[in-house]
Structures are given as C-alpha cells and as structure tokens.
Amino acid sequence: MSLPLTAIAMAAQVRSGATTAVDLCRDALDHAEALGAERSGFTRLLRKRALLRAASVDKLVEAGLDPGPLAGVPFGVADLFDVAGEITTAGSRTRRNAAFASRDAKAIALLEAAGAVLVGTQNMDELGYGFVTMNAHYGTTRNPHDPARVAGGAAGGSAVAVATGTVPISLAFDTNGSLRVPAGLTGVIGLKPTYGDLPRDGVYPFVESLDVVGALGRDLDDLALVRTILREGAPERSDTLRGEISFGRLMSWFDDNISEEMRGPLDAFWARLGRVGFELPHSEIARAAASVIIAAEGASLHRPALEADPMQFEPPVRERLLAGLLLPSDDYLAAQRFRSWIQARLRRQFELADVLFTPAAPGFAPLIADPVMTFEGKSIPARSHLGIYTQPISLMGLPALVLPLAGNFAMPLGIQLISAAGNEPLLFRAARQLIDKGLCAVPVPPAG
Amino acid sequence: MFGAREEMAVTQAEAAGGKAARPTEDSVRTRMAEAGVSAPAECVPGVLSNLIVLQDHVATLRAFALDPRSASAMRFEA
Predict the structure, then answer these.
(1) Are B66 and A341 within 8 A, CB to CB?
(2) Using CB atoms, which residue from B43, B65, B72 is nearest to A319?
(3) A106/chain B closest Cα distance in angstroms
(4) CA of A107: how far to CAs of A76, A202, A245, A266, in Å?
(5) pLDDT tens-digit profile, chain B (78 residues)
(6) Those residues with Cβ within 8 angstroms of residue B31's Cβ, 6 or more apart along the chain or in another chain
(7) What is the pLDDT of residues A129-173, one digit of tens each?
(8) Distance between CA A29 and CA A408 in Å, rounded?
(9) Which residues of chain A fall short of a pLDDT of 50?
(10) Is B70 domain-assigned?
C-alpha cells in the first residue's frame, strides 16, 4: 500500500481544486465501512453530517474563499467528544440513555472552523479505563499490523483509524497513557500535551486531575498544525530558541520490564543519541499516585451509575471502580500532595537534558486471545499495566510525543519523548530531528 | 537527582508503624455496604483483588510519606 496523503497535502489539494472535500470525505467513510468496526477503529460513521459539511467546504473553494488550513480533511474523534445530536457514550453502556449532546466539543468546532470534516466516532476502553480497547459493549479494536493483537488503549480506535490511513488525524484523550500506548503499538504519532494546554470543553471526563485532549496522526507537521489550531493563538510558554537538542534516556523504572523485542532497538536508538542516561527519582511512586488518583476520581465520577446498577459496567471496569470507591480520602490527598511535590522538583531535570525518552510500551502489542504482559517476572493483565512508562509522566503533567522507531520489526515499537511542561515546540523540533536522521518513521499501513 | 535537603522534607512512613491490614471478601462486603453500594456476590472477588492492588499503591505512597506541609494536595484558584 502506498503512503496516504498527509492532512496538509489533502487540504492543499482541496484548496487548489485538485480534489474535493466531498471526495476525500467519501473515501474516508467508504474505507472505514469496508474495513468494518473492528479494523477501522470507528464505532459510528456520521455520513450525512460529514458529506454536508464537506460540500460546504467545496462551496467556499468554488466561491474563491479559503476554507482554512485543514480544508476538507476528514478526521475522527474518540467517543467521548460531544458531537451535536449524538450520545457521547464514553465507551460505556451506562451512557446509552444519556441526553444527546447539544453542541460539538470545542476541539471539534475548532478543527471544523479550520475546514476539517468530522467523519465518525472511535472505539475506546469503557470510560477510558484500560490499555487494550477490548470493550464488552462496543467490541475489540484490532491492531492493523496483526489483527490477532490488541491496538492498545484506551483510545485504540483513534490510533487504528490513523494507522490504517482511513483518516490522517484523530482527536483523542490521554489520562494515563490512553493515546500514547496505542500510538506506540500501532505505529503512529501521538501528542499528549501539557496538562491543561488544549481545550477539554465538551469532552466527557474520566479523571479531572489528569485528563488531557490530544491528537494522533501519521505526519508530524499535521499534528503541529492541529495543535496550533486547538490553541487558538495562545502564546507559547517556553523559550525554544536553544542550540543543539540534548537527549537523555530515563533509566531504572523506565528500563525495567522492557521486553526482548524492544530492548535491542531501543539500545540502538540510544547509542545513536549519545548514550546519556538519567534517573527520574520516585517514578514508581508517581505511578502509584496516579493509580490512586484515577481509582478515586473515576469511582467518584461514576458513583451514581454504580449505585444504580453496577452490572451495567463490564466486569474489569466495574471491579476497579468499586474498589476505587473504598479508598480513604487521606490516600487520595496523599497522592495529590505527592503530585504537587514532584512537579515542583521536576523542573530541574530539564536543566540536564532538553528531551527525555522512554519506551511508549514494554514491547509488541499483546495477543487479543491472551492479553497479558510480563512485569517483574510475572504474567499480568495488559489491560491495567501497558502504561507503566506513560503513567508517571501523566502525574507529572508533562507533554509527550510518541514516535515509531524506524526499522523492520514484526510489530511497531514506539518511543515516548518528554519535555518540560509547556515546551511542546521543543518536542516537535526533537521529533523532526529524529525523523530526519532516519531514527523514527511511521510504517506504511498494512494492506487490507 | 534531588538533594539531600529536599529528601529531609520526606519523613519515614515506617516511623508511623501503621501497616494496613489486608482486606478480605468479608471486609469488602462490609465496606461496600457502608459506602452505600450493593453489588452481587460475584463481584466481590474482583473488587477484592483490585483493592489489594490499590492498597499496594497506597503502601508505596505511604513509604514516602511527605510532610503534609511540604506540598499542597489541593490548588484553588480565584
């Protein structure tokens, strides 16, 4: 299969009249339909809405007007973004009788104001509570590089929609690795911004302390453009006018439990970047604190549904939420206190290296038939542990960009780049450097 | 990475001497009832195993027990 067009190239073609938004939109919808729900990542195709919207973009072009930098670009959203007139399911049956959304989430509105066209909603773990996108209500999303393997989660549908070339961009969320893990396992680029950087209005929450809106794509410049649009011209918070970028690999927690298939390529990548390693003290505690915060806030948010009928939830989510309800408030506050403490001290870490990196996930995507991974020598559920390297970064509120390692591997392997809070421009510059050096590359989508 | 002075802000949890007792299926049932949630008996083993995982996370946190005055657990902005 040839490389699909980037969003920027699509928009250029629409603006020049070389193609139409309606054609691009129809191609995306037809591709998703042909793949089916499990392989496309989509749970709902908004054909009527999308074609109307695409036609209006074409009319602007015909009238000699500029529909915007994403003119006619089809995109999808994880099914926790409000879409006007639709129920926001958050991947849960408990939401099946929820009110229809009265308006689009702000992030959708901003992309559409820039000319993009929403074509559908995408599958996720129930409520975002998982790393596998095996959803008892809306199905399992399969990894396009091996349909017998998971896509990762929680926003697995959003990653797969991009990995298959169905759409060039998906909007998703990241609580604890929700978009970074599937980006790593399906071989696409994932942006998890600094906490609070992109608008969450109209996005169904899970853990208010950690939730961020992010994006997945196949092209770095596409994601940079999406970020610019979603920030609505907000000034950048950090000075990016620095010289050579220095990279450092995080060790200890981030070096333990790496699978054999990841270890070799990661070491080779590290060697090309100068083999500088750093410790990030207290990462294990950060992961513990994140888990406590998620359990407590998630359970509190869904308490009414748990009281009404806990059996509406799929068993793993139900049991995790019920356990979260039993956490003492003191433990939750201790976790939040630790969060403040470590965030304040982390700023100094970036005086030693500009960009830190870790694996995005321990290795290849686990098998759907046996979704487990090895952790401290034991086989444990991937659903709750695939994010071991993303979770501490979430607690710290840092921005991260996941990129696929270049190479001929049996399955994609992703690395997570991390910068100081608010320094996304540096992250993008670092990612560009790695792509230009041939160290990172988005694999061609598999045929079919 | 962090300096010794900062580490001094961290007290040793062991000094508190309070090791949490492991939950049991009976205690889970009681605590769920006290929390006002009723779930079928089939849920209890799963809740218990998740609660034990959470308790391990809490133990990790407590072992690092921060001086409660060294960082804020809540931020309020006007």
Answers:
(1) yes
(2) B43
(3) 23
(4) 11, 8, 31, 34
(5) 444 444 434 433 333 456 789 999 999 999 999 999 999 999 999 999 999 999 999 999 999 978 888 888 777 655
(6) A326, B23
(7) 999 999 999 999 999 999 999 999 999 999 999 999 999 999 999
(8) 30
(9) none
(10) no
Output the pLDDT for position B45: 97
Q: How far apart are CA B68 and CA B10, in angstroms?
A: 9
The DSSP bridge partners found for residue A175 are none
Question: Is B77 domain-assigned?
Answer: no
Res B5: pLDDT: 43
Give the 3-state secondary structure of A219-278.
Answer: CHHHHHHHHHHHHCCCCCCCCCCCCCCCEEEECHHHCCCCCHHHHHHHHHHHHHCCCCEE
Query: Does residue B23 fall inside a structural domain?
Result: yes
Tell me the β-bridge partners of A191.
Answer: A215, A401
Residue A30 CA: distances (Å) to CA of A34, A74, A119: 6, 12, 11
Domain hosting B40: range is: 4-62
Residues of A with CB under 8 A from a CB of B: 278-282, 284-285, 287-289, 291-292, 295, 303, 306-307, 310-311, 315-316, 318-320, 322-327, 331, 333-338, 340-341, 344-345, 348-349, 384
Q: What is the pLDDT of residues A178-224, one digit of tens each?
A: 999 999 999 999 999 999 999 999 999 999 999 999 999 999 999 99
Q: So what's the pLDDT on residue A241?
A: 57
Q: Please state the separation of Cα A343 from the chain's center in Å.
A: 22
Look up the pTM and report it: 0.94
Q: How many CB pairs under 8 A join A and B?
A: 113
What total of structural domains would you count in chain B?
Answer: 1
Residues of chain B contacting residue A325, judged by C-beta atoms under 8 Å apart: 32, 35, 37
Question: Token pair for residue A388?
Answer: 């071991």
Establish if B73 belongs to a structural domain: no
pLDDT for res A446: 74
Chain B hits for A288, CB-CB cut-off 8 Å, are 56-58, 60-61
> Any bridge partners for residue A74, and if so which?
A117
Task: Calculate what percentage of chain A has a pLDDT beyond 90.
Answer: 93
